[in-house]
# Entry
Amino acid sequence: MQDRSGSDGQRGQQLTRREEITWYGLAAVTYVAAGIVEKGLLNWIVGPIWLIAFVWFGPLLTDRVRRRR
Amino acid sequence: MSWAAHQFEVYAVQAHLPKKMRGKVSFWAIWLGDFTPDFLSKFWVYGITINGRRYGASIPEQWHRGWPGMGFTHTLFAGALIAAGLWLWRRNRALTVGYLLGYAAHALTDVNDSVGTMLLFPFTTLNWSARTWAYAATTDGGKYLDGAAYYSSLGLAMDLFWLIVVLGSWRVLTREHWRTSIVPADPHVWSWFARFMPERALLALYRATFFYGVCRMFAWSTWAHIFARPELEGIPRRGYPFDLSWTGPWWLEARSLPHVNPLIVIPVALVMLAVLYWVISRLWEPMGRRDPGVVAVEA
# Structure
């Protein structure tokens, strides 16, 4: 499958196993914690968006921060 | 009702397709089929409160699973009817078969609570319930009491059972499986998403329902047993107590509708599942001969 999202081109398509565990784990821990506090977040729309946001934008943001340093 | 079990079922069905259907049944169709019964009926079960006034079903179990009510949405008959409509509309066996399997998984799993589903609708409107745990949607308790009851009863065991089934077939969650079995069965949908999203986000999208199921199971269980401060029979408690007995938990009245003998429910549900797989298996090739997409590929 071709990557056509230009902003993500530099980052590459895939995560390493370690990055994958980190981002999925981070998404899960934060979502469970937020869900315990606010049950309204525990629904089938927010849940998937939460994961996708972490896995998609998390690596982009960390790359950007690293480059600035 | 079942909670995260419905999210795990989607992957369990995908992982246990007959050999000839692997990589050929739409994941999104299974997903849609599994979610349709509650899409159509659940919004009114808990209801909504506006300016202090609740709008919703006065008898949630009757609305959700009964007749008269929306109980027909949780029947194999409704699943078969919608699947037939999909077939007539699209002539797409990946979509039709996936939708029917997802729908059936939902309707059959829900026979486990104390209300059950009308398995043989429209021939009989009696509910088929194994009464494994209490159906706990009430007008005053809402989603909170329902979640607390479910995750204090054998409902939690049901979620864990489906989780173990999926983890036992863990390859279904891998990138390799997604690339080789999921994308080829739904090329147009994934191509459309790929216009906006990189591959890692597409893979996350595929895994997202599993993620949501795991997280909601942990979050609701943790809240119910550690953070909630209920008052049961006049006694304040730290967390809702577990009760893994049949039709538990003891601290809530299990809702019910007129039903058949619970002892026959699980065997009959399993027989119906076997019959469904047999019928789908028999129809698979004839449907392929009438499916323009399959014919084009084979030509």
